[in-house]
Each structure stands twice: as structure tokens, then as C-alpha cells.
Design brief:
The chain contains eight helices and two strands; from the N terminus they run ααααααααββ. It is mainly alpha-helical. A hairpin with a 2-residue loop joins β1 and β2.
């Protein structure tokens, strides 16, 4: 089931905004059946594939829900356009705190050198990785749908976590979306490089998988 907050039925929102958000969640549900099962042949690859699919799921849900909403409502309302602007601004502001995330991860890397507990390191940086990565992915989903928003890309490019590895991941997602493909297995190396931006490099060992903690 999908539960919508009653806040969506207050003055700032309208049927167009609710439709886009509803479609976004419907696409998530559909993707659970559309995405292939991840074969547990490599513990390290499992980390990379899980993140590949999680972020692509958000990118695709946005791209498709935007496209479908445009088709249903040829004349987008002022509220819908305002909502888009506020949302994009919010993600940009989140990335503006990029130095906070960067410093947090560098601190956790330093602490890891003292305690050597990989589980503690991964647990402590998980939120930073999730928030930064999703902000980047969400923003590019807006940019790729509405080309005029690409003028804002330099604001992302100035952040610590945007580099050639990040660009490669976005290009990969764009191609998969254009092709309508749900097979992301050829993107493991791309995600592997992207996650080194956050100090993570997974390797298979006899016990399962080990995360090498890299300096950033």
C-alpha cells in the first residue's frame, strides 16, 4: 500500500503535485518486480549492486513520474512549478552542506585508523553517503527532465563529491533509462569507483567481504 501524508492535501499542494508523488511511489513498487534478483555470487559486488539499484530506482522513479505528469497535465500549474523550484533548491542547499559531510567522513576515517572496526566506520558514514548520493541523483533527474535547469550544474560540480567518477555514474544511469534497461550488472565497476569518493572499497575475502577504508 501507499500512504500519503495528509500534509499533501493542504494549501501549498495541488492534484498535479500529488499525482507526481503518487506516480513516483507506484514506479518504486513496479521496480521491485521489474529489477532482477541480485545473485549472491560475490559479497563485495552485492554492496555495489544494492547501491546501484537503490540510486537508479530513485532516478528512474523521478524521470518517469515527471514524464507521465507532463502527459497528464499539458498545462502545469503555478503550484507544481513552484514545488519543483523549492525541491531543487532544497537538494542544492543539502549539497551546500557538502563540506560538513566531507569533514564528517574524514573524521570517521581518522577514527577508523585508531579503532580499526569496519562496521563502526560503515555505520557512522552511512547517513552521509545516503544523503549526498540521493541529493546528487535527485538533482540530475530534474536536470535531465528539464534541460533549462542544467544551468545549475556548476553548483554541484563545486562540491567535494562531484568528480569524474560521479559523472560516469550519471552517464550510466542516463543510458540505462534511455534504453529502458533494468540490468545494471555492467555498472559494478562504476559504482566501485564512485564509492571510493566516500572512502569505501569492498573486496571479497574468505569470510565474506571486507571494506578497505581509503583516505579522501
Amino acid at each position: 500500500c501507499i500512504i500519503l501524508s495528509n500534509h499533501l492535501y493542504t494549501e501549498p499542494f495541488d492534484v498535479q503535485i500529488r499525482t507526481q508523488l503518487w506516480l513516483h511511489e507506484i514506479i518504486h513498487i513496479n521496480n521491485k518486480n521489474r529489477f532482477p534478483s541480485i545473485l549472491n555470487t560475490s559479497k563485495a559486488n552485492l554492496y555495489y549492486l544494492n547501491n546501484l539499484y537503490t540510486l537508479f530506482d530513485e532516478y528512474e522513479a523521478n524521470r518517469l513520474s515527471f514524464k507521465m505528469t507532463d502527459s497528464l497535465f499539458p498545462n502545469l500549474s503555478k503550484r507544481y512549478k513552484k514545488h519543483t523550484g523549492i525541491t531543487v533548491k532544497g537538494f542544492l542547499q543539502s549539497l551546500a552542506k557538502d563540506s560538513h559531510y566531507y569533514d564528517k567522513i574524514k573524521e570517521e576515517i581518522f577514527c577508523f585508523r585508531l579503532h580499526s572496526n569496519v562496521d563502526i566506520f560503515l555505520q557512522n558514514i552511512d547517513q552521509s553517503f545516503d544523503e549526498v548520493s540521493k541529493s546528487i541523483i535527485y538533482l540530475y533527474s530534474y536536470f535531465d527532465h528539464e534541460s533549462k535547469l542544467m544551468r545549475l550544474e556548476p553548483l554541484i560540480e563545486k562540491t567535494e563529491f562531484h568528480n569524474n567518477y560521479t559523472k560516469e555514474l550519471i552517464l550510466f544511469y542516463r543510458k540505462k533509462f534511455k534504453d529502458g534497461s533494468a540490468d545494471l550488472t555492467d555498472g559494478v565497476e562504476i559504482m566501485k569507483k564512485y564509492m571510493t569518493n566516500f572512502g569505501m572499497l569492498f573486496e571479497d575475502i574468505d569470510q565474506g567481504a571486507y571494506c578497505h577504508v581509503l583516505d579522501i
